[in-house]
Amino acid sequence: MKFKADEIASVIQQEIEQYQSQVDVRDVGRVLEVGDGIARVYGLADVMAGEMVEFLGDANCPGGVTGLAFNIEENSVGVIILGDYLGIEEGDEVKSTGRLLSVPVGEGVIGRVLDPLGNPLDGGPPIAGNEHRPVETMAPGIAGRQPVKEPLQTGIKAIDAMTPIGRGQRELIIGDRKTGKTAICIDTIINQKGQGVKCFYVAIGQKASTVAGLIEVLRKHGAMDYTTVIMAGASDPAPLQYIAPYAGCAMAEYFMYKGEHTLAVYDDLSKQAQAYRQLSLLMRRPPGREAYPGDIFYCHSRLLERSAKLSDELGGGSLTALPIVETLEGEVAAYIPTNVISITDGQIYLQPDLFFKGQRPAMNVGISVSRVGGSAQVPAMKKVAGGLRLDLAIFRELEAFAQLGTDLDAATQACLDRGYRLTELLKQGLYQPLHVTDQVISIFAATGGYLDPVEIANVPAWVAGLLKFFNTEKKDLWQKITDSKDLDDEAREKLKAAVEQYAATRPTADEKEPAPDQANDKPAARAVKGGASGNLKWRIIPGQKAARLVVENREASQNETFAAIVLEQLGPVSAAIVLRGTVDCGNAGSETFEWKIKSSGAAEKNTIDVGDGKIELSAADCPAPQGRFVIAKPTGGSKFDTIALRLDAIDEK
Fold first, then answer.
1. Which among 185, 204, 507, 626 has the fewest CB atoms less than 10 Å away?
2. How far apart are CA 204 and CA 266, in angstroms?
3. Which residues contact 151 (CB under 8 A, 6 or more apart)?
4. Annotation marks residue 371 as catalytic
5. What pLDDT is attached to residue 75?
């Protein structure tokens, strides 16, 4: 084959004309030392603070671990390692990426469980889309914001009535461990269903099993459809725990700047501060108070200041923050709590004493505050709950005074009686958020004095019946209040008439009323219902209190499935009594019983056939309060999902 010189020359000339010089320039350094989640690197001369770097590893360990330039020093760079640092060795290559630390954002993150770098933890595919956002960005300025005036309903009566939260607000949840801080935030997330709010739950330093349980709760209530969980667990390195809240905030900001509404929960910032302290001390940064670095305040403020209600020019989106801070022995004036209190727009303080007394949520009304106030409430709630906070504060003072045993005048006793009923009204079950209209109706009934004749133990059942009455027979009025979000004179009169109509049909204070099922009662899987006695010489104590008395008397272990009632003697009684009632075992069916027992003395037993199984009734003396208790539990290998024991009458023989 013969080559033509002119053709070869034209090809070479064309290649020369199209030639572009492309030099691959990258900043490469080497690891000087590594350990405890940090590395000191030499040679990254042009690296930026906050820039992502990549550890290349060697043939035996391919690397690919991401790091973050944390300390820029004269001769080296301190890098925090965002992943497994055990495979990194001295002498490994490190290259700069030219990009600030960023995470994937967009619709693809909704409904997912991610680590702080945006990698899936739920076994699903990587996040779809190429949109990323830096984890550290400037907060909106004053001109880019507008006042917080749109409510973000938590579904919790005590909070929505007394410390309301608005979209764009930062409300601190503070208290000792195991006082219900996370439960408030999970309730709030569940209550956003259908409200157009995207939620981001950031778990920092939590046990993986605990977070898995919370995710299951969110799935059960359909909340994972609009929620993203970012997890840096207790077993994850400190660098991941440090950047986790910034990553969650960046994902939420994406939607805020699109004009949408978002909610970010940081659970909790105490553990993030501890992770930051660990990194800072390893980097030889000077320690300050309690060994925290001097910029720990800035660490939290630059996170929480990014929460805002944007101006209409920027789309009007919002990012609401619910940071959680854990206290030790109720020490609200400690370093980290006071730091975060001064940054946020209010705090909800959960007091251990109230929690152990059964007040859930255990909110201390005196310390808890919302600096947005009535601007974050619907007008109807503002009108009915205006004096609630003051009434409860007065009640707490009078309650402490009354414990001294001083004789009380009628007005003081009336104030105390109403306070006890208000306290009972504000109790709320776990993961049971309430619609704002239902909250308005129940608080209207309490502040209007309609609960005053009701026995304290009957308040939950009375209010539950009231709400059912409105949602069935007074649906038009309920819908009118919901649509208008206000309570004008006409609506107030109709509401008053409806509550009076309902109150006229309910039992008086001298009668007993069935208590609502205790869904989260322990011991597990018992649904204890109260009974009604026709004889005032006996008082029936049903439900949780009765079961606790049984357990304290060692008649049943905490792990058993059982139902219990306690019969308290109110006066002299005959030697024997006849109990009439029902045992309900869920899908297995129910059976009525008539059982003659002694009013005191030796233990007695009786067996009832329920469906294909058997229930054993046991009666025994109850020393405190004086009387007898009755237990219903499976026997002979029988198993039931639920057991309910209802006593309808006590007849003396």
1. 626
2. 7
3. 160, 164, 165, 166, 167, 376, 377, 378, 436
4. yes
5. 87
Q: Could you tell me if residue 543 is left (phi over 0), alpha (psi between -120 and 50 degrees) or otherwise beta?
A: left
What is the SS3 string spanning 24-85? CCCCEEEEEEEECCEEEEECCCCCCCCEEEEEEECCCCCCCEEEEEEEECCCCEEEEECCCC
146 — pLDDT class (breaks 50, 70, 90): very high
Q: Which of 354, 345, 525 has the alpha carbon at shortest distance from 423?
A: 354
Least confident window among 84-93, 97-106, 190-199, 530-539: 530-539
Amino acid at 376: A
The residue behind tokens 């009684």 is 573
Residues with Cβ within 8 Å of 367's Cβ and at least 6 positions away in sequence, in order, are: 332, 347, 349, 351
DSSP-assigned beta bridge partners for residue 51: 100
> Which residue type occupies 179?
T
Main-chain phi, psi angles of 627, to 5 degrees:
160, -145
Residue-level pLDDT at 63: 58
The pLDDT assigned to 104 comes to 95
Mean pLDDT of all residues in 189-215: 95
Peptide bond into 523 cis (omega under 30): yes
Question: What one-letter code names the amino acid at 434?
Answer: L
Tokens of 258: 């699109």
* Active-site pick, 30, 371, 389, 506: 371
Strand order in the sheet with 369-370: 113-114, 227-232, 197-204, 261-267, 318-326, 172-175, 346-350, 369-370
Q: Cβ–Cβ contacts within 10 Å for residue 207, how many?
A: 12
Chain mean position to CA 56: 41
pTM for this entry: 0.75
- 532: pLDDT confidence band, cut at 50, 70 and 90? very low
617 close to 605: Cβ distance less than 8 angstroms: yes
CA 573 to chain centre: 48
The confidence score (pLDDT) of residue 334 equals 93
Whole-angstrom Cα distance, residue 33 to residue 35? 7
Write the CB contacts of 615 (distance below 8 Å, at least 6 apart in sequence): 583, 585, 591, 607, 608, 609, 632, 633, 634, 635, 638, 640, 643
**With bands split at pLDDT 50, 70 and 90, how would you rate the model's confidence at 627?**
confident
**Residue 480, SS3 per DSSP:** helix
Per-residue model confidence (pLDDT) at position 510: 42
Predicted pLDDT of residue 552 = 63
- Measured CA to CA in angstroms, residue 128 lies from 72, 120, 122, 124, 250 at distances of 34, 11, 15, 11, 17
Residue 9 scores a pLDDT above 50: yes
